[in-house]
Protein 1
Amino acid sequence: MQGAGELVVVDEVATQRIDGGPGGRQYLEHTQEGTAPGRTGEQRWKFAWVAPSAAAGEVAFFGGGNAANADGSNQCDWIFNPTPAPIATVRGPAD
């Protein structure tokens, strides 16, 4: 799969973009501060996506989550990936 469009960081304290994935993909992940240290319950992150200027066909978004206990190890942490399928897809107008 080839990357399409651009992920835009909206909250630089809580999120960061990682460039250089296969096919020019971009990844958005939380920062250390974005894990909400000292807080319990859920945490949310905001970002924006700018669609490609030319028709790119179907664009797929994938996601995953980590329920962690913040002890600095991977013990008692749980990784959640809904399925190998994307969590959302969009298709722009045809050329």
Note: The chain has a mean pLDDT of 82.
Protein 2
Amino acid sequence: KQSYEFKVTHLPVSKKIKKGETVEIRCQLERSGYFSEATYGFRYFQPDGSGILRMDDSEPFLPNDYYNLTKESFRFYYTSQSEDQQVIDIYFSDNLGNTFELSFSFNNDNSEEQ
């Protein structure tokens, strides 16, 4: 068998974010089986709000561009550029036609620092 389902799990992520703030999204690729020639990648969309998504010290990702996933444990960093609600949808896929989607929603944190 070559084609195995997979999912991407993540640790809890803050639901509130201030403009200019960055949140870390720690992820883990979990496969239901192993095929040595399987490759994984992702693309993302931002239907609401404005922000920057990157991984480690990479250049910011562009919406709808496809990027290879080179590690099974990885971290995204999302930086808010908006005071509105923000949503990012990340679509993962493998070279055998399997897909998995993650969606994150952030509300503006307008509380004052004390």
Note: The mean pLDDT is 91.
Protein 3
Amino acid sequence: LSLASEYGATASRSIEEMITSSNLDIVSIATPHDLHEKQAVFAIENGVDVFMDKPMALNLEGARNILRKASDNDRVLGVCHNLLFHPAVQE
């Protein structure tokens, strides 16, 4: 929390707190993989667009759930697939 105040940011203890206590347009999810589906669905269901790191979820069913929620709630969903380990990038 002190780091946030040092840079004039607002700190939250959870994505739920962050989304319900502010007026966000979009959230970037770069948390441990097992949290991606839950956090993305929460954001989407609360009217926030999502940009997230891969993997979307731990399994295909979870990924489909996120896609379905985004479609049903007319939210934008972006998934980052960086090429960090691509040979050309490593070179």
Note: The radius of gyration is 15 Å.
